[in-house]
Amino acid sequence: MKASIQFKLNDKPVTVVADDGRPLLWVLRTDLGVTGPKYGCGEGVCGACTVLVDGQAVLACQTGVKEVIGKEVVTIEGLEKNGTLHPLQKAFIKHDALQCGFCASGMIMKAHSLLSENPTPSRQEIIEGMDENLCRCGAHKRIILAIDTAAQDMRGERKS
Amino acid sequence: MKNKETARQSFPPTASSLKLSRREFLKRMGLLGGGVVVYVSVGDPSSWAQPPTDFNAFLRIGADGRVICFSGKIEMGQGVVTSLAQMLADELGVPLTSVDMVLGDTLLCPYDRGTFGSLSTKYFGATLRQAAAEARAVLIQMAAARFAVAPERLSVRDGQIIDSQNTNRKVTYAQLTRGKRIERHLTHRVSPLPASRHTVSGRATGRTDARQKVTGEARYAGDIRLPDMLYAKILRPPAHGATLKSINLEDVGKVDGVKVIRDGDLIAVLHPYPDEAQKALDQVQAEWDLPDAKVDNRTIFEHLLHSGPSEEIAADSGDIAKGKKMAAQNFDSTYLNHYVAHAPMEPHTALAHVEGQKATVWASTQTPFGAREDVARTLGLASRDVRVITPFVGGGFGGKTRNQQVIEAARLATLAGKPVQVAWTRQEEFFYDTFRPAAAKFGHRFAKTPTGKGLGLACTDYKGTYVATMAEVEVDKKTGHVQVARVVCAHDLGEVINPEGARLQIEGGITMGLGYALREEIRFKGGRILDANFDTYELPRFSWLPQIETILVDNPAMAPQGCGEPAITTMGAVIANAVYDAVGVRLFELPMTPQRIKAALKL
Ligand code: FES
Ligand code: FES
Questions:
Q1: What's the ipTM?
Q2: Which CATH number among 1.10.443.10, 2.60.40.10, 3.10.290.10, 1.10.150.120 corresponds to the domain A87-154?
Q3: In chain A, is it the N or the C terminus that has fewer CB atoms within a 10 Å radius of its CB?
C-alpha cells in the first residue's frame, strides 16, 4: 500500500511516499539516494546492508520500510559529525581494514551496534558479534583490530 | 572538496560528447592553463596489445602542481589506486597527497587489457614509472633553461626543482608550467630512478581510498544515479542449456510503472525501483525445456576423465621421466579439486546510457576496454563512441572479465530509450560465475611421518613470486572439523611498493585459500547450479580466522611482483599437509570438509 512514511535518517527527518511493503534497503538506495548500505545477498546472509535502527544493527534487505516509521535510521553516511570521523571509521582507516570496501559499510554499522551493547568486548566477543558479516577480500584480521582500537578510543583509553 | 588530503579517484561525470574536440580534451585534462602531459606513443608495440587511440595520456602535471595519473587499470581492492600513486610520487618528487588517479575510464586512459589480480603493479607500474621519468626530465630541462644552469645540477623534491649548488634557487612545477603546454610521447629514453632513491614506495602508507570507503562516499557501479534511469531484472533459465517453451508477459506488462522488454532471448522487466522490478519479474510465468544433462559435482570427475575434452596442459616444462629417476621418493595419486565460485561481495553491475550513436556505461568490470568493444559490437557503434567508466569495483578475483551484464544493460538501455541499470542478484552471480578449480598446487607433499602436532608446509613459485607457507591446524576427530590455528606466510615480492598493502593482499589470499581448502565447493546437477546464496555456499568467516603472520622478503633488486593470488595457491597443500601431520590421513580431494575428513579417518 502506498503510504507517506516518515522517519529520521542520519539526524534529518525524511518523508517518502512509497509502498510500505518495500524493503528499507531499496528505499534508502533509490528513493533517498543513500548508497552506503550495499546489496550483497538480499537474503539476510551477508551483512552488507547493515544499518542502525534506533541504535540497533538491522539488515536493511530484510526490514520493511514501514518498520522504521517514526524511528531513527543511521547509515554509514551519518557517522561523520561536523567533519570528524567516528572512531570506528578512523580505526578502519588506520588499520587498512578493507580492500574492495564493499563490506565496509555493513561491517562498521554492525560494529557500532556491537560496541554500544558491549563497550569492552574481548577478541572472542568481537569475532562472535561480527560472524554473520561476510568479507570476501579477507580483511577479517584487520577488522577485528580496528574494532578493538575503536573500542579503546571510545572508552577514552587512547588518543587518536 | 572534503577529501583534499588524500589522493583520490575521480570520475568525470558527463555522459555526452564523446568525440572531444582538441580544445575540449585539453580542458578536461586541465591543460588550458598549461602543464606537462605524457602520452602513450601511438603504436608502441612493446607495452600495448593494440594501438591506443590518440588521446590517451599517462599522466599530466597541471598548472596547479597536481599530478593526475591515468590508467586503464581498475581498483577492486588490490590497492593499485594507492601503489600506482606511490610510484608516481616517487618518480616526480611530489607528496602522495598531490596525486590524483583516474582509473578504468576508456575515454581518458590508455588502452589496457584488463586488471588481473596481482599483476597490475608488476606490468603497468614499470611503464608508469617510465612516463613519470620523462615528465621529470621535461621539467628539469625547463628549470635548467630558466636558471641558465646545467640540468645535472638540478634535482626534484616536494614538487619543486632545486639547484643543488644554490638551494635557494628553486621553482615549483606549477610556476614552471603555468601558461605553457608541453606534450610528450613516451620515448623510453629516460631511466626511472633506482629503488634506492624511492622515498614514498616501500613505506607504510594507508590506502588512499580508505576514507571514501568508510564514509560511504566511494561509488561502485550500482551507486551511480542518472535522471529517469530504470532498473532491469532479467528472466533467467532455471538451468544452463534450458530453452524457453512458453511465457506470459501480459499480466506483468499491466503492473503500474513496469516496462517489459523482449528482444530475442533477452526478456526483462524494468521499473524505476529495483525491488519493484524484481517483484514484477517474480510473477512472470514461464515454462522451460530442461536439458538432459546428468552430470553433477560428484560425477563430474568421472565425466571429465571419460568424455571430457582431453586434459588441458596449463604449463609444460621439465622432464618428468628424468625427474622421477632423480627424486628420492615418488608418489602417484589422483587429486580432486572441486569447482569454487569467485563470489565477490559486489555482484556484476552496469548502468548504460545510450544517446543516439553514443553510449556511456558505468561498469563493475576488470576489463573496461573489453567492455567497450563488447558494447560497440552489440549496438553497432564505433568503439570511440562508447565510453566505459569503472568506478570502484567491489571485488573481482578474475571473475569480472566477461561483461555479460554490461551487454545486457546496453541492449536494454537502447530499447528502453532511458538509462538502464542491470545489477545481478546473488543467485544470478552464482549462476553465471565462471567456476574455477580451487587450487593449482594441491598436490605438494613432503615425505615424513606424522608428528601429531598438525604442522604443514608448502611452497610455490607463482608467476615470479616465491612463497612459502606454514600452517598449524587442529583436527577434531569426532566431527572432522579443521580449525587452522596459525598461518605464517613468506613472500619474495621484489621491491615492495606498499608493504601494508602487500600484507593486506596476502592476508586476503590466505583467508580466501582457507575457504577453498576447507569448505567451498559449488554443487550443480545437470545445468542447475544448486548453490544460490551464502546460506549453502559458505565463505570464510571471522570465526575461522587463524593467527596470520606475513613475512616480506626485502629484495629491491628485483622489480615489484604481484601478491595476493600466490598465497591462495599454497593453502590447499599446506592445510592438507598439516592435517596429515595431525591425524595421519592424507586427503586427496578439496575442499577438506568435515565429512571428507571423517571418511578418511575411518578408512
Ligand atoms: S544484502 Fe542484506 S544481508 Fe546481504
Ligand atoms: S573488503 Fe572486499 S568484501 Fe570486505
A1: 0.97
A2: 1.10.150.120
A3: N
